[in-house]
Amino acid sequence: MAITQAAEFLATWETGLAQAPAGRALLLHRAARPDLGGDQQALLTLPVGEREADLFALRQALFGERMQVRLDCRACGADMEFELDAGEFARTLADRGDPLVRVAEDGWEVEFRVPGVADLTAAARDADPRRALLARCLVTAVRDGQPVSADTLPVAVQRRIAEAAQAADPGGDVALTIACPECGEGTRAELDIASYLWAELDAWARDLLLDVHLLATAYGWSEPEILALSPLRRRYYLELCADV
Question: InterPro entries in the record, alphabetically (predicted)?
């Protein structure tokens, strides 16, 4: 793996060590979207699927397309290992619909915006997350021409809203169903790209710090001088150290 902006990503890793998973996901998303200039509010209001697509694209840029995933079969417990294509996920999840969902059924007319990360985080703190999310993201609700509140929406309409929102932002819930090669049963699992990418970044950062230690010991260079080297040149100097 060849991260050319080593110092920047090492700083991102260092900051994330003290963060909870949500904070680490935000740090990674900020790195994936330099066009937003680190605007945290803008990042948090983006649809969840857009964030997932951005993180898959970042993963492809940093570590390549092939992702190795391991999963235990829920039926027989067999260890399953398979590959995913980060680039394909990034392209697929980037294809989203209108973030404003419209549902019309049995006299009900509803407009609902696709949830962002901030919406999910806030709703999760509520005793009834589903109700809280509906209330946060509901734009308008009308029945027979009269405005109504989110609390009055029947279950059937709420279900239609959830289906339409998922169709508009399929990346909001990335789940896989893998058939076990041993027993043939399918196992469903959510793919948390933020956690997956953080684990890879953590391993990369620790390896890089070891490289810095070895090169600093051998040549007396400072950390900034070592990080300024290209990954290829660092590797070459490390090979020379091993030959001594």
Answer: Baseplate_phage_T4-like (IPR024364)
